C-alpha cells in the first residue's frame, strides 16, 4: 500500500458504487450489512481498506468503495421531504452568490437541507448558515441530514417565518427557496450588508413575474439577473457517443440581485 | 450610516455598475480616473463611501458602486489570453469535483487563470492549487490576474508540461483544460489520491470520444460522467418576460471520473 | 347541427381524446369496442356524430371525438418495429428539404414507415415516395401503417439495399435514416437531380463525424448544415406555468446538403 | 449534360451560394448584375446553365447556382417589415397543424408574409390561405414577397382586424401571430370547423399565461399543448465537430389546441 491510499476508518461514510445507476451511502461499522439486488455487503469489511478499492458482494458482483463527495451524500444519503434543488442549480446558485470560506449567509426555507448543506460546506470553518423554515418536520429532517454530512456545526436551524423578519444583520447573502419569495424582500434587504447578494429559486415562471414586480417596487436592489440552466448528460460510449435520450427539462428559475443603498 | 454599510477602503477593488451590459472593475485610488461613454469617474471619490452607494459620473449618469464578487473580477477585470471557461461551466466543475476549503488540487493548463482563480478561492485558506502551463506568457498573464483577485498566495504556477508528470502526490482533484487531456491520464492517475476526482473540460466532441477511449484503456478510473450545461438568461421585464433572443449555444463538454485502485 | 360540423362516417378513423396522456386511434365500425381504464366505448356509437363531440364512456368518463391529424395516427395508431423519428425532427426534416405537393423523393430505411407517411402526406396527390428497406418485416409493418393512414397509394415500398443503388433518377430529395448513411452517398448523388436535397438523420455524433468526412471526400455536395432540435413542453396551467419536469434530451442529428455538379 | 440537370430558365429564381453565410436570391435576367464583396455576377449568364453548377465571379471567386427552396427565398429574398417566425418554428407550426395540399386556413397577422408563404406552399394547388392584417403596409410588403415566391395565387390578403370576426367558415386551421391572440379566440372558434386546429405563436411567457386563461374561460377548446423549440447548429468539421458557439436562445412559444363542440 502506497501513501496515496487513504484508509476507510470505522464510522466514516463510504460511497458503494456498482455503476452510474446503483450507488449507496453507507457507514463503515461493525455488525451492519447492506442488502442490494447485487448481493450483500458486510459493512464491517470496509473498515481499514483504502478508498478506491474494488470489492465483491456475497454473490461475487464487483463494486468500488469511494470516498463520497457532498453531492453523493446529498443524492444517495439524504432523506428527502421536499422537492430538492438539483446539483446543476446548486452549482450556479453557489457560484453567482460569491460565497466561500468565512461567509455569513441566511436561507429560507430549509426544506430537506440540501442547499443548507452546500452552503455550510463552502462557508466552513469560520462562516455560518442561518436556515429558516416554518415546518418543524422539515427542520428535523434537515438536522438529521446535516448530521449525516458532518455539517451541522456550521448551521443554525430556526423554526421561524422569514417573512416576519431575519434576526441576523450584515449578512453576505440571502437565499430564498420558498413559494412566495416576494414577501421576504423587505426582511432580506434589512438583513443584507450593503452590496450583499440576494438569490431566489422558483419553479414557475409565474413566481418570477411576481418577484420582478416586487423588486422594482421595492427599489433597493439592482436589476436582477434571471436564468435557468439545463444539464445534458452523454452516454460515455466510444462507438455510440450521444446525449442520453431523457433529461430533466426543468427544475426552476434562478434570480440573482444585489442590495443597493436607497437614499 | 448604519452598521450595515461596508466602506470602500483605499486600494480595494470596486465594481462600477451602470447596467447589465456596462460594468467595470476599478481600484479605489488617488489620482486615477475611469473614462466611459457615460462620463468620467474619479476613483479617488470612491474611497470611504459605502459599497452599494449610488453615484453619478461627470455628466450626471447614475451608477452603483458594488463590492465585486470573484465572478465580476474574472469577467470584467481579468486580462484574457485564451478562451476562458464560462461561469456556468466553472460552477459545475467546482460542484462535481467536491473541492472546498483545504483541498489540494492540480490544474493544467493555466490559461488566463480563470479556473485557477475559482479553485484558489474555494480551497483557501489552507488548501493549495498547483497550476501547470507550457506557455510562459500564459503564466505571466495568470499571475497578474490572480494578483488582481488577491488569490496568488494560494496558487503555485509552474511552467511545465503536465503530460510529462505531476510533481504533487495525493491530491484531491486534477483539472484538465488542455487540447489533449488523454495524454495526461497517467500523470493524473499517479498524482491523485485513491478515490480522487479527475475533471476534464473539452470544446469538441471529438476530444470527448478520444478521452473516453483512453480512460477505458487505462482502466484506473470509474465510468465517467459526461455532460454539457446550457444557461438561458431571461429579460427581467414584468410585461415582456421571456428568454433573451441570443444565447451561448456551446462552450464545452465536462467529464468527471474518479481514480480507483487497480489490482 | 350547423354546417361547421363534419360527421364521422362509418370506417373512418377517430382520435379518442381523454387528456394529453390518454389518446386512442380507432375506426368507427359496427360491433367493435375500445376497452380503456376509463371504461368501454362502443365504436358503433361514433358513426354519424360530428367530430369535436363530447361523449362519455360506459362508466361516465368524458372524452372528445376528434378528427385525427397524421401526427395522431402515427403516434397512437402506428405499430412500431423500430425507433421512430420524433415529430419535432420530422418537422425540421420536411421544412428544410423543401418538399411539397408533387415532389418525387427517395427514402431509406423505411423502418416503421413514419417518415414515409409524412413524406407521402406532403407530396400527395401527384408526387411519389420510393422507400427502401432491407428488412421484409419492416416493409410489412410499414405497409400496414401506411394503409391505416390512407397513404399507401403515394408510396412504392422496396425490399432492397439502397447502398447498392437507387432505381429512380432525377429525384427532388433523398432521405437517409440508416446506420451507415455514408455508404449511400454515391447512390444518392446519382439519383438526385442537380441541386437536389440530401437529408440524413443519425442518432450518434460518431455517425455525424463519419458522414461529414465522406461528404468532403465525395465532393459532390455543398458544405452540410448539421443541427439538432429540442422541443420543450410547458404545463398549460395559469397558476403554475412552467416547462414540464422531464423532456426528451436527444433523438438525433439532422444533416442537410445539396447536390452540386462536379466538373 | 445528362438528363439529371435542370436548366435555369430566363426569369426564374436562383440561389447564389458562396458559403453558409453568403447567399443571395436573384432572378436570371438579361442586363442585371449582382454586386457582392466577392465580385460581380452577370445574371444573364445564369440563363441556360444547369442548377447545381459551379461558376466564378468577375474576380474569380467560386459560387454555386442552386434552385432555391422556399426557405431560401424567405430568408434571403423576402423584404422584412416585422420580426419573422423562424424556420424551426414554422416547421413545428406546420407539422402540428396537420395542414397539407387542399387545406383551407386563416392567418393573422400577415406581417411580412413568411408564415403565409409556407402555408400557401403546402395547401397548393387546391387549398387556400386567408391572411388578415390591420396594417396596409404589411399587406403591401407581404404581397410583394408572395409574388416573388410565386405563391400569391393561393393567398387572399385582407386588411381587416381579425378580432372583429373572420369571414370564412369551416376552415381547417387558424394561425394567430399577433400581440393579443386571446382577443381572437371567439372569432377563431366561429371560423373553425369542428375538431379544427388553432395555433398561436407568442414571443413572451406573459402572453402564454393570458391565452391559457382565456382558453379555459372560453371552454370551446381542448387543453392546449404548449412548447418551444431550440435549434442547435453544429460546425461541420471533421476534426473540430462541436455545436456553434452562439445560437438563437429564444423566438417564441407555440400553442396548439382544437375546437370542440360546446353543448
Say what oligomer this is.
homotetramer
| Major β-sheet profile of chain A | 8 strands, mixed
| N/C terminus separation of chain A | 65 Å
Mean pLDDT of chain A, rounded to whole units? 96
Order of helices and strands of chain A: EEEEEEHHEHEHEEHEHEEEE
Number of helices of chain A: 6
Low-confidence stretches of chain A: none
Please compute the radius of gyration of chain A using only Cα atoms: 21 Å
The name of the CATH superfamily of the largest domain in chain A reads Vaccinia Virus protein VP39
Describe this protein's structure.
4 copies of one chain form a homotetramer. Chain A is α/β, with parallel strands linked by helices and 263 residues long. Chain A has 2 domains: 13-68, Vcp-like ATPase, Chain A, domain 2; 72-258, Rossmann fold, CATH 3.40.50.150. In chain A, 24% of the residues lie in helices and 32% in strands. Chain A has 6 helices and 15 strands. In chain A, strand 3 (33-36) and strand 4 form a beta hairpin. Chain A is globular. The model of chain A has no long low-confidence stretch (mean pLDDT 96). Chains A and B meet through strand 6, helix 2, helix 3, strand 11 and helix 6 of A and strand 6, helix 2, helix 3, strand 11 and helix 6 of B.
Notable traits:
homotetramer, Rossmann fold, 6 helices, Vcp-like ATPase, Chain A, domain 2, 4-stranded antiparallel sheet, alpha/beta
Short description:
Chain A has 263 residues and is an alpha/beta fold.
Task: Please describe the topology of this protein.
The structure is a homotetramer of 263-residue chains.
Chain A: E1 13-19, E2 22-27, E3 33-36, E4 39-42, E5 53-56, E6 62-66, H1 70-77, H2 87-97, E7 104-108, H3 114-123, E8 128-133, H4 136-148, E9 155-159, E10 171-176, H5 185-191, E11 192-202, H6 205-218, E12 225-235, E13 242-243, E14 246-248, E15 253-258
Amino acid at each position: 500500500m502506497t501513501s496515496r491510499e487513504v484508509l476507510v476508518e470505522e464510522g466514516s461514510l463510504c460511497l458503494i458504487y456498482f455503476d452510474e445507476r446503483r450507488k449507496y451511502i453507507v457507514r463503515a461499522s461493525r455488525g451492519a450489512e447492506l442488502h442490494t439486488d447485487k448481493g450483500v455487503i458486510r459493512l464491517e469489511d470496509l473498515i481499514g481498506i483504502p478508498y478506491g478499492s474494488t470489492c465483491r458482494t456475497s454473490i461475487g458482483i464487483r463494486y468500488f468503495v469511494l470516498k463520497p463527495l457532498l453531492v453523493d451524500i446529498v443524492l444517495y444519503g439524504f432523506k428527502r421531504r421536499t422537492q430538492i434543488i438539483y446539483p446543476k442549480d446548486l452549482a450556479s446558485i453557489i457560484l453567482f452568490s460569491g460565497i466561500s470560506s468565512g461567509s455569513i449567509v441566511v436561507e429560507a426555507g430549509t426544506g430537506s437541507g440540501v442547499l443548507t448543506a452546500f452552503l455550510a460546506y463552502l462557508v466552513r470553518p469560520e462562516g455560518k448558515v442561518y436556515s429558516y423554515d416554518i415546518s418543524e418536520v422539515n427542520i428535523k429532517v434537515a438536522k438529521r441530514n446535516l448530521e449525516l454530512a458532518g455539517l451541522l456545526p456550521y448551521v443554525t436551524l430556526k423554526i421561524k417565518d422569514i417573512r416576519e423578519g431575519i434576526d441576523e444583520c450584515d449578512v453576505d447573502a440571502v437565499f430564498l427557496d420558498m413559494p412566495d419569495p416576494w414577501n421576504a424582500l423587505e426582511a432580506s434587504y434589512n438583513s443584507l450588508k450593503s452590496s450583499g447578494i440576494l438569490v431566489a429559486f422558483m419553479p414557475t415562471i409565474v413566481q418570477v413575474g411576481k418577484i420582478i414586480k416586487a423588486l422594482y417596487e421595492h427599489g433597493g436592489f439592482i436589476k436582477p439577473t434571471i436564468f435557468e440552466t439545463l444539464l445534458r448528460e452523454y452516454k460515455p460510449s466510444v462507438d455510440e457517443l450521444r446525449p442520453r435520450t431523457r433529461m430533466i427539462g426543468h427544475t426552476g428559475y434562478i434570480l440573482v440581485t444585489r442590495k443597493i443603498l436607497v437614499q
